[in-house]
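WARN retry 2 of 3 for item q-0093 after timeout on previous attempt; input resubmitted unchanged.
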Amino acid sequence: MSLPLFAQDGGKAIMGADTRDQVRNHNDPVSNAVGILSYGANWCTGTLITPQHIITNGHCVVKSNSKFPTTLKNPGVFTFTPGKLSAKDPGHGTYRAVRVQAFNGWLNSGNVDYDMAILKLDRPVLGVKPISIQRQDNLDNIANFILTLSGYSSKKPFGTQWLSNGTFIMIIGSNSFLHNLDTLPGTSGAVIRKYEGGRWIGVGIHRGSQNGMNRAVMFNQLVFKKIQDWIKN
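OK item q-0093 returned
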């Protein structure tokens, strides 16, 4: 099934007409860093943020309120294939996770403001430039830009990657914002990006829909520091 691994991100997630475009070749370095994160027959979207680390949603790797988070103890159940564009496309190879880290806020209470996880891969991904993520200290860093994401939708053929553009709507919760980029289940874990200073920069991570609007966890100071600590350690 093409659903998120441990929680549906259901609800209305297409804003008006479906404006997503299919990524059809490997010429786009940004799409090469986006990949399918698989666990058995299920999948989410993951994004390479260092040559050996990917970021995704917490609900893609572990069930919240779980007393025995076996997937955190057995990270090898997850595989990641960056740059996959069709069912038969090998992308840039398949990598297995060797470590999984998720926010305690998600693990302990299912707080969607902390629905984020980092996976370390068994080896570096060569020939692919990771997405740069950046701490977002004020609203203008997001509100004044066109936003975009790439991911793997449950309503599209397996293995195909789809690009969506949209805008910020409003801040919600302590670490989140609403946006109008078109998504469906399977796109959970996709990094939302802006184009600034001649490069693409990650500003947050899509986690699902809420009351007909899509929600993302923002890379604010708290979240960004935690990501840095996980990667460093």
